[in-house]
Amino acid sequence: MKTSTLSYFAGLVLSVTAAPIDVGSNGRITVQLNLDLGQAGIANAFDVNQLFAFSTMQFVQAVPEQVVNGTEPTGGIAGASGNFNFGINSAMNMICYNITLHNFQGDFSSPAVTATHIHEAALGASGPPRIAFPNPEPVGADGVVRNSAGCIKGPFKTGVMVEGKDSGEGFHVSQIEANPAAFMADTHSSLALAGAVRGQLA
Ligand SMILES: *[C@@H]1O[C@H](CO)[C@@H](O)[C@H](O)[C@H]1NC(C)=O
Ligand SMILES: *[C@@H]1O[C@H](CO)[C@@H](O)[C@H](O)[C@H]1NC(C)=O
């Protein structure tokens, strides 16, 4: 399959090289590449810069006052705060994160694979996690500041099952861009299971 695709493409290249290059034959090659390589192939081979481009950024201030269980405010961890900074790359279904927590208390605790998430939930409401991020690690010896930074790409997996399906399954970061206010970022503590701090995307 791969070999025949390559040799077919090589044939096209040879025929173009052998003939005077004109706009028409260039156009046909472009179409052929699209068909053979698919979207991922095009991104990797011909638009490398796409990997380093965010289509949206989000700077979310997370506070204990926004934490709810259902719609009931629970207060989170008093005195804690968070900066959840995200760079979304919709073409790659990738999200880069730089999450800093101040004064987090207790242990990270969640039924999901980690305790630090983007949930699909409107302000004042609860909803399933869609993306689980590595929990922030202490930056200094006192553990007052914690940070987690990196990038993750779909397919996403949270470890939380909703109606027999992982709540991250099929999720695409473009859903966040389509309606950011329908999402929030939070982290959960053994001392505040509903959430230590939470912030709404906007
Ligand atoms: C994360 O953000 C902080 C500022 O809030 C910055 O000092 C740090 O360098 C950032 N980390 C990365 C990996 O970009
Ligand atoms: C949310 O509230 C319900 C009902 O009171 C309770 O059973 C549940 O344990 C609470 N969940 C969390 C994470 O606190």
UniProtKB/TrEMBL annotation:
SMART domains: CHRD
Signal sequence segment: 1-18
All copies of domain CHRD, residue ranges: 56-202
Keywords: Signal
Domain of life: Eukaryota
Pfam entry (one): CHRD
Record's protein name: CHRD domain-containing protein
Native source species: Ophiobolus disseminans
